Amino acid sequence: MIVFTAISGAKNEDPLCYLVEIDDEVRIMLDCGWNDAFNVEDLKNLRRVAKQVDALLLSHPDLQHLGAYPYAYGHFGLSCPVYATLPVLNMGRMCLYDVFQSKINESDFDTFDLNTVDTAFDQITTLKYSQPCSLGKYKSITITAYAAGHTIGGTIWKIKKDAEEIVYAVDYNHKKERHLDGTVLHKDGVVLDALSRPTLMITDTYNSLISHPARKHRDAALFETIKTTLQDNGSVLLPTDSSARVLELAYLLDQHWTYNQFTYPLIFLSYQSYNTIQYAKSMLEWMSDAINRQFDEKRENPFEFRYLRLCTRYKELAKYPEPKVVIASNVSLESGYARDLFLEWGTSPENAVILTDRGPPYSLARELYYEWVNKSEEDNTNSPVKPAIALDLIKSLEIRKKVPLEGQELIDYKNEQRKKNEREAAQAALIAKSLSIIEEDESDRSESELGDNDIEELLATQFDLYVRDATKLGGFFKQTQSYLMFPYIEKRKRYDEYGEIIQADQFRNKGIEGLGHVIDGESGDRMEDDNIDDSDKADQSTADSNVPTKYVYYDENIHFQCQLRYIDLEGTNDGRSLKTIVPQVQPRKLIVVHASPEATHDFASSCLALQSMTRDIYTPDVGELLNVSEAINFYQVKLTDSLVSSLRLSKLEDYDISFVSGKIHLPPDSSFPILDVMPIEEYAASDNPVFVGEIKLTELKRVLQLEGIIAEFKGEGVLVCNEKVAIRKTPTGQLTLEGSLSDDYFKIRSIIYGQHAIL
């Protein structure tokens, strides 16, 4: 039995979170997304089920897929095993780091902190692609990750229990990109065998109503807009995420700069820009074959950028002359450096903003996208990508800043700090006095009663000329005392089975501990950047961190007049691709999620119009309980040893199958019926042979070619062999063999028989 519940992201474009219950035994959560508004009320459905979840599978390293996981872990008791690929773990952590730092630099953000993020992500179990893994204590259930494209480490999940298979495929991309290969779900026009004909497929149709221009047209439009703006002495802002799609954009632009030898500054501005690129350098094996070939042949890491500069602080932009191109987070334009730059640059007609993503619903980025769509429709040219528009928008926005204290506020703050320091000093003095009294009371203890650690603590807290030594008895009434001349006790060396125990702290060179690391004054977190002199950064950050600050909020009407253009670089399938791939997967049942009501209806209608597509297509609402179980009856019987020994088993994939004829009887001392050998007088002749198994024409073509037969597709669903024999597959899955009786005919028939189990 399979029961599906949409926690979030059904018939809308909200973050993705779904619950699948299998046989009343295990509850598996698929993704756990949130948006950068971080409204806790959005998680009310998640709160109700979090403690009942037995496993969580994460598919992509962005807020839409894992943003709520740390909060649910810390506040809702979501303590189940969590599974993801290594890039999803690393880049997802960087994503949450970046958005957290964006939030605390504009408001008193306390929804979660970095310690919660680290603790939650430390619980994740990492898997490799195509690596089956038993689901914790539920040994009968296996999960397997497959490459989804779209983001580094992006995953299509396959859940298998006995004969039931569930495929969860959202935000996948079948097209190759510069740093990623396409999904294995539909590679080179062929559906992967392991993912075909699942019992249930859960997929998104976010782009069902969208048609993408060819990639070369989109790239040309991007380069043309950037070049025109720079030549007109304007700067370009490209809002993007902080750790996923930014890799494709950064690699694309750095290559373009290298090819054209541009001198304009190209900058990636993010709180975690350095760490994100460092992770990318270390995870090339998760990227495209082209990336790995380049590294193998030239021994050059593609993410050792020649022109792209990494900045982690807004003030660092002042070092680079205008005009310049800046890739900045966050994609929604609701927070982060991208919002700050848009507020500064968006008022100038010379500057340009290029949206590479439509942004989340109700965000500033989505509003700008609609503004571009409405105005670009007036263009009558036949250009594959609609042109830029001159934005003319007056909008009231809430300005959120962290500013240094000044004037009377600064004086009051310093007075309060001084009083606080005095109180702490008085309390410390009181504690020290109490400790000294206690030490005097205990000073009669002998040295023999003190261990090495006690002596060291004593020497660290007292500064007498000598330390009282042990009392030595000299007779019945006579005793002598001796004192150490110098207050030093040599520490005894300790040994284990490997020799003397070394204290690593004693050998650490403290002078180089902080090399390459600085403390960011704006966020209070450690940052790394190899583009700025360490001493300058350290001085500046120290000064910033000592300046008291406050948060200010106010509304302001801003007149935006910049150039605006949307160029799709989201890296997901468009509507035409979705409507081609899903029918080829041939799921027995299909659930459509994460799309607007219009896109959901459009995709479901297009699937139902196909004769070969299943009729069981579901479009659930959020919170709706959907039973998608197969109508199958299972019976359990015990086989006698004599019956088992008489069976002729045939191997089919992971199963041994056989045709069984027997007689069932129920013994009085057992609740299980027993199947025994049929008496010879009751035995009847067996039926015609039964062919068990399903073979795909593409796989059959490969097998035939290995046997030296020329096999080519001619027409739809027809495989022609040696120009003499034709193999067709009917809509019901049956194979028909047509041709004249010849050696080729019988050889091909034998090969087809060999691909089935014959009972």
Task: Supply the number of structural domains.
Answer: 4
Low-confidence residue ranges:
444-450, 461-473, 510-543
The CATH architecture assignment of the largest domain turns out to be: 4-Layer Sandwich
Broad structural category: alpha/beta
Could you estimate the helical fraction of the residues in percent?
A: 25-40%
CATH top-level class of the largest domain: Alpha Beta
Count of individual beta strands? 42
* Largest pleated sheet: 7 strands, mixed
Shape: globular
Termini separation (Å)? 29 Å
Mean pLDDT: 84
Report the radius of gyration as a whole number of Å.
34 Å
Number of helices: 19
CATH topology label of the largest domain: Metallo-beta-lactamase, Chain A
- Beta-strand proportion: 15-25%
CATH superfamily of the largest domain: Ribonuclease Z/Hydroxyacylglutathione hydrolase-like
**Spatial strand arrangement across the major sheet:** 6-5-4-3-2-1-31
GO molecular function: RNA binding
Subcellular location: Nucleus
Pfam families: Beta-Casp (PF10996), CPSF100_C (PF13299), Lactamase_B_6 (PF16661), RMMBL (PF07521)
Main location: nucleus
Structure description:
The protein is of the alpha/beta class. It has four domains: 2-211 and 569-627, Ribonuclease Z/Hydroxyacylglutathione hydrolase-like (Metallo-beta-lactamase, Chain A, 4-Layer Sandwich); 215-396 and 558-566, Rossmann fold (3-Layer(aba) Sandwich), CATH 3.40.50; 638-687, no CATH class; 692-758, 2-Layer Sandwich (TATA-Binding Protein), CATH 3.30.310. 30% of the residues lie in helices and 24% in strands. The chain has 19 helices and 42 strands. It is globular.
